[in-house]
Structures are given as C-alpha cells and as structure tokens.
Fold each of these.
Amino acid sequence: MTDAHAIDSLGWERRTFVPSDAFRSNALVSDHSLYDEASQDSTAFWAKQARELISWSKEWHTASEWNLPFAKWFVGGELNVSYNCLDRHVLAGRGDKVAFHFEGEPGDTRTVTYAQLLDETQRFANVLKGLGVVKGDRVNIYMPMIPEAAIAMLACARIGAAHSVVFGGFSAISLTDRINDAEAKVLITADGGWRRGEIFPLKHTADEALLGTSTITDVVVVRRGGNEITMHDGRDHWYHELMAQADPVCPPEPMDSEQLLFLLYTSGTTGKPKGIMHTSGGYLTQAAFTHKYVFDLHADTDVYWCTADVGWITGHTYIVYGPLANGATQVMYEGVPNFPGNDRMWQIVEKYGVTLFYTAPTAIRTFMKWGDHEPAKHDLSSLRLLGSVGEPINPEAWMWYHEHIGGSTCPIVDTWWQTETGAIMISPLPGVTTTKPGSATFGLPGIGTELVDESGEHVERGGGYLTLTQPWPAMLRGIWGDPDRYRETYWSRFPGRYFAGDGAKLDDDGYLWLLGRVDDVMNVSGHRISTTEVESALVSHPSVCEAAVVGALDATTGQAIIAYVTLRGGFEGDEQALRNHVAVEIGSIAKPKAIYFTPDLPKTRSGKIMRRLLRDVAEGRNLGDTSTLADASVVNELQRRAAEAPAED
Ligand code: 7RM
C-alpha cells in the first residue's frame, strides 16, 4: 500500500440491469449520441443545449469563460428565468396544462395551471416591486411546501432579485444568520404549515429570527396554517391582501446570463454556513437538460413527483427550475410520508398516476422498515422511472425500490450531485445505461469526472477522490461575500480541479460507485475503509434496514469500526451474525468491533446520516454542534446507552 492510497475497495456488487426494450423504444435517448457529441467539444455541446432548451432575449457572444476558479457561461446573453418557466409555455398554448397538483398534508388539494402560476407570479413580482425590491436585492423565503413557495422564487427571478430559501424546519437562529449574511430586504413566510398532523409555527419562528436582524424592511405572510400570529404594523403584510391589489402585469425583464439567481446556504461540517451562489443562464440550461434526459421527461404525458423540499437544492433544481422550464406536470406534497398512514406516498402516486418518482435513500430505507405491505396496498403501475439522490443508495435498498416500488420494470437513476454543482452530474441515462444496484454509473454528457489518489494522480480502478475536471454550466459561481473561502474549499486540494469531498471507486467496467464523504473514511490498521461499503454489507443482511458506521479511536488498530444498526420489522439483532456477515461479504478487516441496535439514526434535516455525531458518541465526547440534527433525542439515547455499556473489547 502506497502513501498515495486513498480508499480501499472491498465489495463488488455484480447484478446488472439492462434498459428494457419497452422503455428504450419510447425513450428520448437510446444510444450514445449525446456522449459522443459532448466528448467532441463539451462547450459546444452545452451551447447547443442552451439554444434548444432555453429561450434567450439576446444571444450570447461567448459560450464559456474560465478563469479558474471563476466561470461564466453564455456570456453576453440575456434571458428571463421566469419567462422560460412560465410565459413561453402559456404563449405556446399550454396555459391550461397543470403545473402543480398540490396535495396538502390534511388532504386539501389545489390544481395550479401554468396560466395561473404565471398570473400569480406576475402579481407577486409587482408586490415585491411595491415593497421596494429592485434587481440585485436579496429576498428571504421561509415557507412550507405550498405553491406560493415556487411563486415567490419565480417572482424574484422575474425582477432580478436573488432569493435565499431557508428550509422551513430550520430554527430562528439559522434564519437570523442567513438573513444577516445575505443582507436580505424582504422575508416571505407563512403563518404555519402542516407537519405530521400539526401546525409548525413559521411566522412565530420568523418573528424571533427577526429580533436579530436589521436589514428586513417588510415581511409577507401567506395564510396556510390558520394559526394565530402577531402582525407587526408597518412591517408585516398578508400575502392575499397585497395580491388582491397588485397589478396583474409584470413584463419579464431581460437579465444578464450571469445575473445572480439565488443563494442557498449549506451548513457544511465546520464554520459558518456558506451562501452558495448560482446564476441564471448556465444554471437553467443544465437544470432543464438534466431534468429532461435523466428522467426521460415526456412533458405531455408524464406526471413527475420529486419528494424534496424547496428549501434544498433538489427542490430548487428539480421542483422549480428544471421541471417548470420543461413544462412538466408535477405533484407537490406538503407533509410527511407517514401521515395519516405509512402508505401516504403510495396513495398519492396512485391518485395522480405518477409516472416519474424521485426521492432519497433515507426515505427508501424508511419505507423498507415500514414493510412491503404498505406499497402493496396501492396500484403503482403508472410508475415508469424511479430516481434516487442525497446519499449512496445501498444495493439492497436499490433492489427493494426496484421490486416493491418499480414493479421490477422501472429503470432507476441514481443521481449524484451537490448544492454546489447545481444540477445532476453523475447518473445513468435511463434508455442507454445498463445499471448496477448502488452505482451512479457515469458522468453525464458534458461533465468531466476523474478519480485521483492522495497526490492527485489518476486512478484507473479502485478507490479514490472524486474530482471534476472542467467547468460546467450550473456550477456554483462562488460563496457569497467570500471568494477566498470559495477557492480554498473547492479548488485547492487538487490544483486545477474541483474536489467535491466525496470518495468513489471505479470497477472494471468503468462504473463509478460513490463511497461517502472522505472525512468519514475509516483507517483500520492502515486500511482505508469507506463507510458506504461496510454499511451496504450490513444492509445486505435480511435483518437490517439501515446502518451507519464510524471509525472510533482505538489503541491497537488506530480506528475501530463501530456500527449503529436499525432492524427490519420482526427481526432480533444478532451482533455476532452481523459481524460474520460483514466478514463474508467484504472481508474480516471490515468487521465492526461493536454493533449497537437503535430504532433510528441521527440525520440532518435533509435526511443524511450524521456520522460525525456518532463518532462523538463512540469516542465518548461531548456532542458538538447538533443544530442541523433532525431529531436530537436519537443521539441523546445512543449517548446514554454508550455511557452505560462501554464498547467491549
Ligand atoms: C443533491 C444533494 C451533497 C452530498 C454529496 C454526496 C451526497 C448526493 C448522492 C450522494 C452518493 C448519490 N446535495 N450525495 N447524491 N452520494 N450517491 N446519488 O444531496 O449538497 O445536499 O449534498 O450528498 O456526499 O457530496 S447536497
């Protein structure tokens, strides 16, 4: 083993799934033409996509300008993002097409057509203008999952104000920090939203947040929860009152291709949240391209449902900008997947005839835990494609998704990307790519990926660091207010390339397998073991639903593997059996030293497992920052048990 060794590669999943003839014969792409074109000249490839998928009011003069690490795309071009998402569909006679089938958690529904969405967006753009918002200002959005969240975003885009959406589950202090960093002028929120049968009081939290800010002049409040709130005279306004008086016409003003479209804050593991900057022309091009081709969107017939919240990048790109730019019809759901029952998602799929379904591995593993009988209660035969995003999907979770949701016929697109990349980077093309459960397969056309070792040397096979070798249209343009941190965070580890922070491995066929964050890689007696591989080995045992492993300091081996395991319903935890199972699956070096059974794992609010906290627990440390944790009681319980029964030798 050399010093340049990045990550060992242990297990190999060998099952393969070829796109069916039925799917291929109807797919937008069923050959390698897009890959071939892009490999000839990727800039020309993206320029072609920008011309085909986006309407420009002024043509650009230079497709791409690259001053590492600062990129510009479609330089000199002008467009209006909201025009692309709304007006052009209405002008083409598709005003009556449904944009959103909205399903509230309590069961109330609303159908919003493209014409209605355009009408509300124009009015709200005028409302914002009336409050003094001008091009270049920042507007904060703190909303439940209701159509007004999309309307608020599109209205900002229409007038050239950048939005900064803060997920509705974040605390007052998180909102304060983000408002202050962006120096936002206006806050758009709601009285409350529905979650697990109860109202979460957004306006109340916003009021608390605003005690610590000085830039917000006005607050617009959508009535959703009907809960009692306090309106501050002069500052707070009801959305419906302002809208009733708003001018219905707000022409889409052309914006520079590099006009700031939004900031989206990522918490990261250290330091204050980073305001990731995304601009207009390049972002919309890649959002529309990936949404169309990765999901094989047939806009006239498909019903698309992405279960993310608009507060995350997945909601920005694959609920708002990508699907609307493509004129898709989608489902928007406000609430949790287990209200009123564990089959709510499948009931919605059946009700609206959803054809394309995009969710996260954490959700899939939860559905597995709830049992096969929940999806079996519903007719899911409308589904024709499934997607996954957010974490590595363990092969067993992939297989479960394939069989129990996809009826063993739907292709699965495992899509790797980040807030920073803006849009999907690595994914199968469903009519082209033979998939392997757990592999995100290949970089999309026009995307340059390369695995490198510790010293930046090319890795041909096995584990390494995932880097991106060339600029892409939807890439972040920087960190708001901190260009040095931008360069340092993403462009300094391997000079000349973007390093995403993720490890991956390449198999003999050149397939990419994401292995999790490199900060989480465990070092056991000099072996660099990825969390993903051990977790996938555990999840491949019939008793296991979900697993998280961490490397905890160990006097003999440097680090020892500690596993936290959630069992499937009806199974008893057998530590020895699981340790042996891991040894058989990937080798005895990867055997966990201790296994703790737990009904739940600590996750971020967007559903990613927080291994850092588990490491703190395993090493008996006080917990660091827990503010991004979705449910703090989970770690408290694990910590209590760790204190009572220290890991045995
Ligand atoms: C879209 C999103 C980004 C991080 C990323 C990875 C992990 C996302 C996958 C994945 C394996 C995937 N944005 N990640 N997708 N890992 N396979 N298909 O999640 O900024 O919130 O997170 O998520 O570690 O770096 S994000």
Amino acid sequence: MTTKRYESKEPELDVLYQDMSDHDLQPLWEMRGLLTPEPNPRTVAHRWSAKQMRALGERAGQLVPIDRGGDRRVLACANPGLGGAPYATSTLWAAVQFLGPREAAPAHRHSPSALRFVLEGDSVWTMINGDPLHMAAGDLILTPAWTFHEHHNPSDKGMLWVDVLDLPTVEFLEAVFFEEGPSEEVIPKMDAQSASEKLYGSPGLVPAGQAAQPSGNYSPLLAYHWADTDAALRHQADVSGETDVTVRYTDPVRGGDVMPTMRCEMRRVAAGTKTSAHRQSGTRITTVLHGSGRITVGNNEFDVEHGDIIAIPSWAWTTVHANPGVEDLDLFTTSDAPVLSALKLFREEWS
Ligand code: 1HN
C-alpha cells in the first residue's frame, strides 16, 4: 500500500477501501476540507529578523567560501508552515545573500525568475547576460528567467541584499531547469549605466522601430534605482495628500508587471500613521527598507525595522502602523499576483 487507506465500520466498505488503497485510489466521499470557502493556506505569517540574519550571514562569510557547486552564500527563509521546505511562502523563495570583499558569485541561469532588492552597500555589480548593473541600497535588480547572471564585489566592503524567486511555483509546475555559465572570470566593465538602463531608463521613452523591440516576456529595464522610486513616492504623496502611497515597478515597453510571475511594489506609510486593512489571494514577501513600525497579519503582530522580512499568507488581513518619528516606513513587496491574475484567481479587498 502506498496511499492513504480509509477505514469504515462497515466490513464490506472497509474491504473496498483496502482494495482501493492497494491500487492507489481514494474515496472522495470520505474526504473533508478539500474545497474550503476561503483559502486555507499552509504558509503562515512570519518575520525573519534582520539582526539575526546579518549575524548569521557574517558567520557564514567566515566559514563558507563561494565556489562552483555552492555558488551563492544565501540564507533561505524557511516558512514554519511548509514542513521544512526552504521556501518563504508556498509560491515564493526569499533569502538574504552576502557577498564579501572582492568576492564574485559565478554565472548561471535557471528557469525560475529572480530579483534582488538591496538593503545596504553600493559596491556590487550584477551582470545580466553580460550587461553590468550597479546595485545600491533601495535598488531593485531583475534577473528574469533563463538570463545568465553573476555578482561581483570589487570593493573591500561586504554587501547584503534580499533575493526573491518564483522557485516554489516553478518547482510545483515541475519546470525547473538550470545551467552553469562559462567558468572563465569575466570582469565587468563597471559603467555607471547598463545598456538596459541606457535604452529603457528614460521616463516615458522607449526605443522605436523594428530592430529595437525587446525579445523576452519580461521588462527590458533590469534596474530600478532608489532615487527614482523615492521621488515617485514623494511626488505621489505630495499630489494626493495621502499618508499611504504605493508605486508598482512596471515593464516600460509592454506596461504591466516586470516579470510574468512576480509583482513588485514599494509602499510608503507616513511616520505615525496607520493604514486600512487589505487582503489579497496569493502570497507576498515584504522587506523593510526604511523606518520601523508594526505589521499586523491576521492574528499576528510583528514589530519591524530595516531589513526584516515578512511572509504574508493568502487572504490574511494586513495593516501597517508606522512608528512616529522622522522616518516614514518604506516597504518593498513581491507577490505572485501576476500568476493569479493570469489564471483569473486574483482577488483583493480593503476593509
Ligand atoms: C540564485 O541563482 C541566486 O543568482 C540567489 O544570486 C538565490 C536561490 C535559489 C536558486 C537560485 C543568485 C537563489 C538562486
């Protein structure tokens, strides 16, 4: 017997269940909780503390070299609801990555899509298909599916960022592919601006004409720098007079989300204010960039500060309370909303 054996007090039915299980069959009529009125997530609300992750990451930096094979010094957020899987939510991977002084993480590519959100430092370049993208605090860097990517830190300071991937989704779909890149070390030409930004980084302007069309199904703009995000938030707050504003990172050519599987947004909650409650289907990962406060997710309350990572399960009511003081609370969130939207499964509500 390999599958679950159902039992019955009626002898004939019990024998039927035994014979069914011998043939890997189960009776739907005995099953409970298969179709729930609302999502019943395995993902639980959880906070990973930046202080802990930094201390443990620094210890890993002393002990763990970056070689072929290991490839990346990454501490994966493992959601306590997911039975030991190295996944922050049922659909998203989240982790902190440490790249020490003069270290390089070699090139590879994979079918899962990834992004980097930088927490501090300004000394790393990520090469995407050979294009060097500068990474500094508050920047979002995309490494879309099947693009070669490698990270270089030519400075004498370590650096740390958050990685988010759609790996659990792609694994669930049994569509993971991986390939190592060429192993010769290519030192990036550290231009201030990548070709990606030169072509697609001017607001409202994209290259026209047949030859200029980007080929992938992801944003051809691969870096979104903090100065632009900050200005967009500040101006939105100015124009609207709101204390809770959000910007969405979009594909400058096609509009819509930056990658087919992940939505990225930055929310600013003014110091000393509290948001209304919101919930959506699908899961989310939130990273605190600036400020401090309290995030309520369902029945859980998390005090948060710079660098903390929060997992938000499907359909959990969420409110944000920014501490009073000089700093607004800036929250970077990645969700699986493009996947749910494409499948017509996306729902959201405000209280
Ligand atoms: C990956 O390629 C990176 O390139 C980071 O920095 C984290 C986690 C799982 C699978 C691939 C990177 C990753 C990863």
Amino acid sequence: MSREQNKDSQAGVQPLGDRVNNRSQRPESQAFKEFMASAWGPSASPEVSRAEVAGYAARRRLAISRKFPGERLVVPAGPLKVRSNDTDYRFRPHSGFAHLTGLGLDHEPDAVLVLEPVDPGTGDHGGNHHATLYFRPPSGRESPEFYANARYGEFWIGPRPTLAVLQQHLDLPTATLEELETAVTKDAGVVAIGGLRIRLLREVDLNVDALVDTSRINTGVDLEESDNLDAELAEALSELRLRKDEWEVGELKKAVAATVNGFHEVVKVLPRAMAHERGERVVEGAFFSRAREEGNDLGYDTIAAAGNNATVLHWIRNNGRVRSGDLLLLDAGVEADSLYTADVTRTIPVNGSFTPVQRRIYQAVLDAADAGFAAARPGAKFRDVHSAAVKVLAERLDEWGLLPVPLEVALSPDGQHHRRWMPHGTSHHLGLDVHDCAQARRELYLDGLLEEGMVFTIEPGLYFKAEDLAVPEEYRGIGVRIEDDILMTADGPVNLSAALPRTPDDVESWMAGIYAGS
Ligand code: GLY
Ligand code: MN
C-alpha cells in the first residue's frame, strides 16, 4: 500500500487500488464457494488430435537448435495487454513464438517456449535441444479462478487447454508456468567458468526479461554482451521465416482467399458508402466483417482511403467521404486463424468507371507492378524488384513532363526526383507479420537474393497530393497503389492475389458485375 493509500485507509477512505471492486461484488461466503465448485458435468473437451502444423513447427525448432548448440533458448509468447483498467486487448502471441510452436488464435498468454541444450545430436529429432512449452493450464472448477478470474477463468473467457491437450495437439512436451523460473535460470552463468548461456527473445514479456536479467546479474554475466546475444536470437528467428514451408504457403493462400472475398464485399457496399457521411468507415467495416467471419482478424489496420486521402500512405482514420468520381484505395488483409496475413491493395473508381487521367495514372502504376513482377526471379536481388518498378514510374512521370530534371538525372542516386510521388519501398516480406522478417540482416533482405519459398509484396504507387503545386491540377488529389502477394517458386513468381482484377478494364467489369448482381 502506498503512503497515500495508507493515509486514506486510516482516514476511512477506500484505497484507490480497491476501487476496481466498486462496479460489482462477488459473494465471499464459504457456502457460495463450495456451491460454485460442485455439480458440474465434465467440460466439453475438444477432441484432441495432432495438429497438421506440429511436424513443420518441429522442423523450425530443429533449424534454430542447430544454430545455437549448448545454449538455452527462451522464446516468450508475451502477456495480455491492458486496453484500460480491467479490460484487455484480444491476445495475439509474438510471431516468433507462433512460428516455433504452431500456435495461432489467442494461444497462449504468458506461455514461454524453452529449448534446453543437451549433448549435441541427442535432442529432439537429432538436434541439440529438448523443447518444452511452459504455460498456464486452467486451474479447474474447484478453484475460484474458474469464476473469479476475468483474465484466465473459464466462466469469463471459456475453456482453455490442459497440459495434456496442448502436449498432444502440438506434439510438444508441456509444463506449468510454476516450473518456468527454475527451467530458465538453473545452471545459468558465465560460460568461461562453466555456466550455461541463456539467449532470450527480449521485449516480448517484461516478466521473462526481468527473470533472465536478474539471473544474469546474480551470476555475473555481462549485460551488454548478453544484449547482443539476444539480438542474434531475434535475428535468427526472423531469418528463419524468410522462406516459407508448404504449410505456411497454404495458410497464406487461405488468408489471401478471404481477403479477396473482403474486397468483393467492399464493392457491394459502395452505394451505401457513397450515401454515408463517413463512407470510408462503411468500407472498413465491410472488410472487417469478412476478416472476422473467415479469419482471425485483420493483419493490420485497414487503409480505406478515398479521394485525396489515398495520397496518405497509411491513412487509417478512415472517416472521410467516398464520393462518386473519386478513386478509393483499399489496402487490407485478412489474418487467418494461424496468424498468417495477406496484404493486398486495389484502387478502384467509386462509381465504377475511371476518368482518363485516373486511368493514365493507374496504368502507369500497373506497368510498374508488372515490371517488378518481371524482375522477380529466383536468384535476382530483392531490391531489383523495386528498381524495375520505380524506373517505369520515373519514365511515365518524364513522359508527362512532371520531372524537373532530365530522366537520367532523376534516375541517378543524386537525383531521385520521381520518388517525391512514391516515397515508399516496393516490396516487403509477408507472413505471420505483415512486414515479416523485420529483424533479418540487410544482406539477406534488401541486398539478399530471391529464393523459392519467399513470399513478398509488390506494391508500387503514385501519390499526387491536393496541394502538390509541382503537378498540374488534373493530377492533384489522386493516389493509386496496386499491391499483390507473390510466392517465389523454382519456376518464377506466382501472384497469390491474382483473383482480384488488376487491369483498369477488368476492374471496371468486375465492379459492373457486382453492381448488376446486388
Ligand atoms: N499494408 C501496408 C504496408 O505494407 O505498409
Ligand atoms: Mn504492403
């Protein structure tokens, strides 16, 4: 109790910390507790089967085990995050944890995966570690947690898996969080004097950070050096995701399919959006309904940007009007239950027909996307896709007389004037995170080579702001981006989002078809 609270309680004032109980009161009587613990039939326990992802997750753990022999690896899922007071956000585990366990949906707050080093080659699947998943199993209906704990109790949030259920489902040994402290800290210390090195995926769960830091301080381990070791683990986990396995590709295809349905839904609601003061919200809501119906959630906040708002790269306020005659830029992705997400953008004429200037800009962006696609080959550099796309945009801007310098000057590193109208990158890796593999080294990302199994976006755009005095008036207030999700195969790139029309004619016929049917 703080000094203030102490003073308050002496004065008969309810302490601040107790005020959360003012909304309702739970009976405290022994009779109530006993009655609540009695007369329940068995839980409708889910039929437990080995998850399809289990074998894939085991191979991912083996890859990371081989990189760090003799070291304890600690990968937390992260805690629930408070939205306000006693209300939390829906839980989403850290992507590095989801990748190594195969867990999706809202599994499991506070869980920690520990890879315990064993004699090289004697670990799981011939690796260097034994993996255990530590998590909080339900306490059972005899415990007040059942009805009194709004974060973890079955009465509040529904049934949660037991140790046995999750162990069988993931084909991965499980243990309770009570055993975590010992599992993380035992025998840890300075390697030179026989201690065991811990590597931690940091800044995911501050409690686990504190546990590891305390152990390091108590055993004389250098904290600064440990920071680097931890960063190397984050980097390795990120780089492990650069190439997707076939299960991941399947999940990404599901996410894209649901996203395509979401875009159809949006075209259907456009008449209502046009009539609404905040038409962009109508668009956002229509896409979100598909995301929740067919997937787990959105992979990122939807960008529903009409007219000049489309020139704001990450416009997510989405409270503008959707006017006939304007373009609508929709950048949206459904996240599947496995947490893999799509990331697709289409820019469509609100009334179903492009004006000549809109079509001209749209076609330039489409040609840039196609040039990026043509440059994307196994063995090509990741950055080649961007260079190819941006070169096309520069050429068009030159043809239209918008560049203040000759094309060669603009294309030189000292120029780059064309980037005024496309200041973002053309591609990023896509997977569990919309901007996946973000901790990968530059030589494996931007300067890396495209390889079979990589999934990334191609998303050029042109953005002419309403107040851009460097372009003629007819261009102002128009933003166009076209974004597709690309899987690299041995035979070249496959456009996973090709089911959504891309050419201006195809976009117009697609919209006309939906309007005719609705
Ligand atoms: N979908 C938004 C982005 O890629 O930044
Ligand atoms: Mn993107």
Amino acid sequence: MTGTHHDVAEFALIDRIRARVANRGDVILGIGDDAALLQVPAGKHLVVATDTLNAGVHFPHDTAPADIGWKSLAVNLSDLAAMAAEPAWCTLSLSLPESDTGWLDGFLDGFLALAAQHRVALVGGDTTRGPLSVCVTVHGFVEPGRALLRTTARAGDDVWVSGTLGDAAAALDHWRLGTAHDEVLRARLDRPTPRVALGLALAGTAHACIDISDGLMADLGHVCRASGVAAELDLEALPASEALRAAYEGEQRHALQAAGGDDYELCFTAPAGSLDDIARLAAQAGTAVTWIGRIVAGEGVQVFDADGQAWLPSKVGYEHFG
Ligand code: ADP
Ligand code: MG
C-alpha cells in the first residue's frame, strides 16, 4: 500500500500471505521490510519478467480465486521458461475491491501450489484497494549466453511447439457463447502449465524461443520479425488435444490452434538435423513436442493446408474478449 491509506485490513491481508509463504536459502530477507534482500548465484544472470492479469480482460469474471492465483504465476513462469531460466523468486501486487480473506485464501491456494511445484519463493509485493488486478514479477537465473531469445532464429531451422494448441481459446469461446462447457478445455484456460523444464532442457540446442500467449501465428511472427526471417507452417501438423478435436472440427479448430491465445506453450526453432536431440530433450523434460514447420528467408508467418495452399484463419472463435 502506498501513501497514507494503510489500514488494519490491508496489514491483516499481508500477514495472511506472509504466514503461508515457503522460504529458500537465497532469500536473505523476504516479506516484512521495505524491500527484499536476495542472493543471486555467482556468475549467473538475473532474469526478470512481469505480467498483469485484469479481471474481465485476462480472465473471465467467474474464474475461481485459486485459478486466478495459479494463472497469475503461470503466465510469468512461462516467460522465464521461454528464456530457459530457472525460476527462483516472485513478487505479487494485488489490487482488491475489498478486503476479502476468503478470496485471498483461495487465491493463495492456487498461487502457492504452483510456486511450490517450481520452488519459487514469494518475497514481497504490494496490496491496494481497487478493481481486481494481479501483477506478478518473477526472477530467475540463467548461465551467461544460454538464454533463449527471439532474435536468434535462422533460415533452415525447424519450428517446434510444445503440448497442444487452441484448448484455452476453445474454453474462452465456450464461455463467451455460453453454449457448451468442457472441464478439460476450461482447465487449460484457467491452469496453464508453464513449460519450465522444457525451456531449461532446450538451452544450448534450440536457436530461438517464445511462449505463446497471443496465439501461435502472432507470437511466432514476433520471433520472425526479431530474427529477420520468415516461417512456413504445416496446418495439419499443429497438435490438437482429444478434447479440442471432440468439440471443434475443420476450419474452426484450425483457427483456434493457429491463432487462439492463452496456450502458454513454447514455440521454438532448432537447427535442421537436431530432430533426435529435440526428441530426447523433450522426453527428459516430460513434455511432448511437435514439428510444425520451417524457418525460411523472408518475412512473416505463412501457413499451408493439406493441399499446399496458403491458409489464413477465419475470425471465428478466437478473439480476445473484453
Ligand atoms: P511499504 O509501505 O514499505 O511499501 P507495505 O505495507 O506495502 O510496505 O508492505 C509491507 C511488506 O509486505 C513488504 O515487505 C511488502 O513487500 C510485503 N507485501 C505487501 N503486499 C504484499 C503482497 N500482496 N504479497 C507479498 N508481499 C507483500
Ligand atoms: Mg508497498
């Protein structure tokens, strides 16, 4: 809380948070003082990412507090995964309409469950009154020179993606239309899996990497622009879950996979001929990966259908709601 408006309720919320956080040996001083004191391992680079989730923009209003907690950390860990960084610490800035301990306890259930999975310590934050908004900053480490960047894709690289595409956008489509509901798809929207182990495994082998938050075509487009190359994708190669196949077919499914947001999968490029290495590293990380296309000279992302025709997604079913 900033300014002169600290009140007992806000201190009670902070105490509630502090009582539940796990510690790490490299946290010299966590929650409680004006700032945290943290020990960065000698010789490593500190990697920092931050992302805000606003109610009604980044998650539906009916999202459970625990799911908001999970997702607010997951989207940040996904950014570290895309850099091949090992997560360590995070801070949490919470804006809440009212001092609601029930809401906070639920939020912490999800947030701290994911934090425990990745041994991430919550070391500080801010608590204010206002429209529901959650801003998380994560800190991690990487060996100098090993971070995976957007700028390092090369013509001739293969393009790969982790997991499956379009599930979260499908759940959002269901929610928006109110016509259907699928637990598996909804879980992919509410509880994305940050691919931290995969990102770490790919360092040293992959050339470029990005996490997919705005949709495969848009995010791979960022890599292409940053690297000065183009991508050619095979529409039929894009991985789909059983749940997505059961709920959507044809053009609609393809649009969700190629352009739907909120997947939090990793899209990466790797030298042609590294197929076996990628398969082995992905197996080690316990994450499925799929070959989806190639990097070529030029600019932009082009997708080709089964007949080899250039394909563009229809506008149906994947717009960000707001
Ligand atoms: P200050 O006025 O010095 O910013 P605050 O009252 O905002 O102090 O915070 C007191 C302590 O509680 C600080 O260590 C801060 O990092 C921590 N803190 C506040 N809000 C949160 C939160 N939502 N999550 C984790 N730590 C928090
Ligand atoms: Mg403060």
